[in-house]
Amino acid sequence: MTYPITEERFIAKWLGAIDDPDEADKKFAVALVAALNNAYYAGLEAGRKEAATCRE
Question: Region 14-28: what's the mean pLDDT?
Answer without folding.
Answer: 97
